[in-house]
Amino acid sequence: MTVATFPAAVPPSPLSARRRWTVLAVCALSMFLVGVDTTIVNVGLPAIGQALGVGTRGLEWAVDAYTVVLAGLLIASGALADRFGRRRIFRCGLIVFGLASVACALAPSFGLLVAARAVQGIGASMLSPVALAIVVNAMPDPRERARAIGLWASVFGLSMAAGPVTGGALVAAFGWRSVFWINAPVVCAALLLVALVVPESRGERARRPDLPGQALIGLVLCLVVGLLIEGPRIGWTSPVALAGYALLAVATAGFVRVELRRSEPLMDLRLFRRPPFATAVLGAMAVFVALNVTLLLNTLYFQHTRGWSPLATGAATLPMALGATLCAPWSGALVGRLGARRPLALAGGFTAAGGLCLIGLGPHTGVPLILFAYLLIGIGFGFANAPLTHTAVSGLPPARAGVAGAITSTARQVGAAVGIAVAGGMVAGTPPTALATASRPAWLLVAACGLFLLTAARAARPPAIGAA
Question: Which residue range forms the structural domain that includes residue 453?
């Protein structure tokens, strides 16, 4: 989720109430697509690997090609929308996303599937931040806008958690290609609705593009994820890996140097001087590392070790989806009344408890315990997003709040990519009977992410004096 910049003084909206909420529904639909496609592929990975002859390590790229590109282009897409028109970029994003989804469904080889997934990420980057900016522009009243953003956060949490359930049902009924075909009619409906109800809008002042920064952040993300995925195969101390580390260090230093010297950087690194902001960004990464570790290991464990069907595997994540869906709006209400600390502490406690429940996972662990752990992790995920966004932007002027929200959104997608890469690297090449044991360090990582959120709760701003 991206937080858009709020103008200091906004004229009354020319849109009727019905049209304003229709705009929200259309934009929330696009957000649902982006979130679902981050996780829907997980349940279909074994079927994709069997059909295209790919092992676990290769399958990680089918997920991370999407999330890495999405993370790398989120901020740039928001800037393009401010310059050229939000509805225009939004429609372009829908078209790119839809065509790439069809290409994924038709892909005859794994290489073409990964390439199409990367193009999907390009389209998705034009949807997430741009859609929320459209909603904010359509709803200038602060109270109405707050309600809209609360609903937006709920859709965001639901979409991420609903992906495996939806994917499991589709794979079981129609095969793995259906998880991509399903996007086509949704995109067509969204394009029609955008043309009918969404007004055009632009930013008050368009930023100049930061091409060097964009190229360097893309290189950094690709190197990080590539090394995590391929490190176990090529060897962590091999010449290729050492060269990758050196290139990563040079690219990171170059990115920092470029961004600090630009008057309008892609990413305002000065924000990281504020401890609450830096902690919130790291917390956003931790939440998505934990979520994506859980989703990938759920797929591999139940389908490879327990022999479950894709439908049953997807259904196993229902407690996680339920926890996230119920707690996301509750978390937003708690943030408004009590500040970010308590809901963030709840997020950390539940996530850590869920990870600890599974550190002794074995081939015959009771299903009720696993489902209970998933419920705890889902509750933690539901509680986390609202306080993290609040902590990231609190105390900032409106002109910088949008950038802060965009960086936090980028951190979430980076966390998703890293979580898939780390979990896959731990169990790649492991026989099904040993997969549960090999995954135990990953569950410790989930618990560690929860403990970090507890630390982040201490850095969160307390509620204002006199708050309810």
Answer: 271-468
